[in-house]
């Protein structure tokens, strides 16, 4: 059976994610054990809270090296909400720069909108050929966030994590005057700013697409 680890480093809405993944009929475990995370077919990195604190917590748990090692070994990783944001080079929450994991290039900055946070449902502009969004390109997803990445690039500070031919696919969302990355896919990495585990059937389909992308390849 396909095995999924939801990596518990103290900063995530982990219970709802565990339930959502379990509903797919796979073997799911919530753990902070890095060895178990490395051995799993897929790993989910959730995140709720301040950027710098989440990065620090992830590093303290050994999650940064786990992410790097999984990507180098072509093992799937799904980051959600702040789990998307920490994959980028730098965060500017509170106006103070903090170093992210540097998997991808880009900066995490506050949304430009009359009302922040964005809290609720929004449509997305799905990337052409998106694996995650297949079949739900025109559906709405649930967002809860005050910060976003508007300048994503395929290479971050940490090199050697991807193959040269790994496509870089960005799904966009508009809120206020911000146009930001709602989801990014590159090689074994998939990340979403929205919460698939809170996005009803569209979110369940996205999670199924993610699992099927590697479960069928085993």
From TrEMBL:
GO terms in the biological process aspect are: L-histidine biosynthetic process
A GO MF term = imidazoleglycerol-phosphate synthase activity
Q: Where is the active site?
A: 81, 195, 197
| CDD domains listed in its UniProt record | GATase1_IGP_Synthase
Reactions listed under catalytic activity: L-glutamine + H2O = L-glutamate + NH4(+); 5-[(5-phospho-1-deoxy-D-ribulos-1-ylimino)methylamino]-1-(5-phospho-beta-D-ribosyl)imidazole-4-carboxamide + L-glutamine = D-erythro-1-(imidazol-4-yl)glycerol 3-phosphate + 5-amino-1-(5-phospho-beta-D-ribosyl)imidazole-4-carboxamide + L-glutamate + H(+)
Tell me the Pfam families matching this sequence. GATase (PF00117)
Q: Which residues form the Glutamine amidotransferase domain?
A: 5-210
Keyword annotations: Amino-acid biosynthesis, Cytoplasm, Glutamine amidotransferase, Histidine biosynthesis, Hydrolase, Lyase
The GO cellular component terms are: cytoplasm
Q: InterPro entries given for it? A: Class_I_gatase-like, GATASE, Imidazole-glycPsynth_HisH
Pathway field of the UniProt record reads: Amino-acid biosynthesis; L-histidine biosynthesis; L-histidine from 5-phospho-alpha-D-ribose 1-diphosphate: step 5/9
Oligomeric and partner information: Heterodimer of HisH and HisF.
Q: What does this protein do?
A: IGPS catalyzes the conversion of PRFAR and glutamine to IGP, AICAR and glutamate. The HisH subunit catalyzes the hydrolysis of glutamine to glutamate and ammonia as part of the synthesis of IGP and AICAR. The resulting ammonia molecule is channeled to the active site of HisF.
Q: Do you know which HAMAP family this protein is assigned to?
A: HisH (MF_00278)
Q: What is this protein called?
A: Imidazole glycerol phosphate synthase subunit HisH
């Amino acid at each position: 059976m396909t095995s999924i680890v939801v990596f518990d480093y103290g900063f995530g809405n982990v219970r709802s994610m565990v339930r959502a993944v379990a509903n797919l009929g796979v073997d799911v475990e919530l753990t902070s054990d890095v060895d178990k995370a490395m051995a799993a077919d897929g790993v989910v990195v959730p995140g709720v809270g301040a950027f710098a604190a989440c990065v620090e917590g992830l590093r303290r748990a050994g999650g940064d090296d786990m992410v790097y090692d999984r990507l180098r070994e072509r093992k799937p990783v799904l980051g959600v909400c702040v789990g998307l944001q920490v994959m980028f080079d730098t965060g500017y929450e509170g106006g103070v720069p903090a170093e992210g994991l540097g998997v991808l290039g880009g900066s995490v900055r506050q949304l430009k909108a009359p009302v922040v946070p964005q809290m609720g449902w929004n449509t997305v502009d799905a990337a052409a050929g998106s694996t995650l969004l297949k079949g739900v390109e025109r559906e709405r997803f649930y967002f809860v966030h005050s910060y976003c990445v508007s300048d994503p690039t395929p290479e971050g500070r940490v090199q050697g994590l991807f193959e040269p031919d790994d496509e870089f696919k960005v799904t966009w969302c508009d809120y206020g005057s911000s146009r930001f990355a709602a989801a990014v896919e590159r090689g074994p990495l998939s990340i979403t700013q929205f919460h698939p585990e809170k996005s009803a059937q569209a979110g369940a389909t996205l999670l199924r697409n993610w699992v099927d992308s590697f479960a069928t390849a085993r």
